[in-house]
Amino acid sequence: MEDDLSCAVCHDVYKDPVLLDCDHSFCRSCITQYWEKADTTSCPICRKENSSRDLRPNRTLSNIVSTFVKSDKGDKIQQECSRHKEKLKLFCKTDNQPICLVCQSSKNHQNHEFLPVEEAAEEFKEELRTSLKPVQDKEEECNTVKRDYEKTFIHIQDQSVKTEKQIKAQFEKLHQFLREEERIELEDLKLEKEKKSQEMKEWIEKITEEISSFSVTVQEIEQELREQDNIKFLTKFPDLQKRLKRTLPEPQKVYPLINVGKYIGSLQYRVWKKMLTVINTAPVTFDPNTAHPALLLSEDLSTVRDTGKREQLPDNPERFVPCVIVLGSEGFTSGKHSWEVEVGNKTKWDLGVAKESVNRKGEFTLDPDNGFWTLSLRQENKYWACENPSKLLDLRVKPRKIRVCLDYEGGKVSFYNSDNKSHIYTFTGTFTEKLYPYFSPCNTDGGKNPEPLKICPRTVTIQEDEGSIPSSK
């Protein structure tokens, strides 16, 4: 059995046996080394040339060898040199195989490097341990990433459910508004129809009465016209003439039609104007995928505050950690843009714009060199323009609302006190990449700074002049 399962080149039990075109089998390493030394692809037994150097695994033979090696006899044979039947005590590092003491003296192993089996095993185990460590680290890293993927998958499902709910709620609000406007319009139409219809009924009754009176008069006059007695006719003529004059006035023509233009004319425009009172007209909104896990955003994404408690959210590249920051959902690469933020009585906050490429995963300094153009409040009444170095500003009035203005091509970021329209500070520079609105409510400052930051709705004005278009500011 052992002879049948031994390679003709190494005379040892097959290791990774392969099958040549001639149906002879050899260890993969043995036939490869043989071909390299002989510079040929012939079979060592029958000398037949193999069609290529591509070797086919002999899986059947490999399974038989595996079963044999696991047996008691196989285990014993594995401990012995198949050629000399001596115990394998050395390891030939040159040929990368265990050998016996007789093999060491043979021509096949002249000038080779040897180690005792125990030392070789320990050396190679240590080598494998060293090589295994990066693989283990990579495996742990992959497992960590997988766990993040799984959390992200769950978060996506949660985002979808919540967003779908919000979309439906927002549209339901609009639907309710439109249904109410439709009800009001139809109710007004119904009332006008009833009023005009009643008015026409009264006119119809009145004219009907007049027609009846005219009919009686006509019949009586026609009767008198048939009078043969001229004296009698002439006697009645003055009275008949007076009666005719009393009935001669023209009937009043009245057409109280429904004012269709009042209802249909510019209907959508009129409803749209009223709709502005129920929709969120904030010029920017927050991007929840950038928000620090401790920040709580309102459903309409216009209000943010620090809760002091971190939610379990994916640590995606866009999210700021560890700084309590959130960016606007829309970035700008051109044009002029502005938004107003209610800061109330907060004791600290940061507002401005930030480059898309800013550091989001570590500590940083707010200044233009790092991609931030921001205004900051600290210690309740100290306002800083975050230049490099920062500039302390002298503000005589504490702003409750701040307007941020971005002029991309002009290279300016300006801040104004919305309450009195006074200018606070303007950064100047050159912008080369997308800029996003930047917000930080900062931490709660030991309970002194609990208020949120709120993006104010935009004031929309409708110009009523003929040919004008709606504008906003």
Would you write up a description of this structure?
With 473 residues, this protein is of the alpha+beta class. The chain has 8 helices and 21 strands. The chain has helices spanning 28-38, 59-70, 72-78, 101-105, 117-225, 230-247, 260-264, 267-275, and strands at 17-19, 25-27, 56-57, 90-92, 97-99, 114-116, 295-297, 303-306, 326-327, 336-342, 349-355, 372-378, 382-385, 391-393, 401-407, 412-417, 422-428, 435-440, 453-455, 460-461, 471-472. A 7-stranded antiparallel β-sheet has the order 7-8-19-10-15-16-17, with no helix packed on it. Strands 9-18-11-12-13-14 form a 6-stranded antiparallel β-sheet, with no helix packed on it. Strand 15 (401-407) and strand 16 form a beta hairpin. Helix 5 (117-225) packs antiparallel against helix 6. The protein is elongated and about 175 Å long. The model is unreliable at 464-473 (pLDDT under 50).
Describe the structure using short key phrases.
21 strands; seven-stranded antiparallel beta sheet; six-stranded antiparallel beta sheet; single chain; 473 residues; alpha+beta
